[in-house]
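note to self: dont lose this again. the chain is below, predicted strucutre after it. 165 aa total, dont forget to put it in the shared folder this time
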Amino acid sequence: FSDFVNIVYDFEANPNIPELRCLSAYIQDIQIIGNPLPILFFFPPPCPCTFLQAIRDRRFFFLLFDFPTICYAPIFSFRPNTMCCYSLFTFSLITSGSLASSTLAFNPFFQTFAYFQYDFLFRVTCCEQVNFCSLYHKRRPIENCFGYRPPFFSEYLFNYIIEDQ
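---
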């Protein structure tokens, strides 16, 4: 007898195993977007550094809410886009875990079906149903706020309100 056991999975026999669905989504993403990731995936729009900046910046719109996390995305950015998620306890950008701010392959506002199928379900399957977030983040890199610049008008208006009081 051998000390090793080979396990063969038949995707068609039982496609409801979450680990297999995650692996299948990963392979499908490689087929659709390519491997390695296109260079543009490493230069998406930067996230606002805080939740308050995201609210004030009219380029970003509400995307999803999963207490205690709220996520925004830029509305007029196309491939790649950014999902910026914030803690409602600290108002800071989340850069780890299942709801870490990350690159998106599709615009969630104008490419809704593609976003749902290739970004949203990929994250839910790999990060929430099983603990394969690292696999998801290999294809959707974690984002930060490096290089973020608030719009001039928003910054001016906010400073004016603070100084006026």
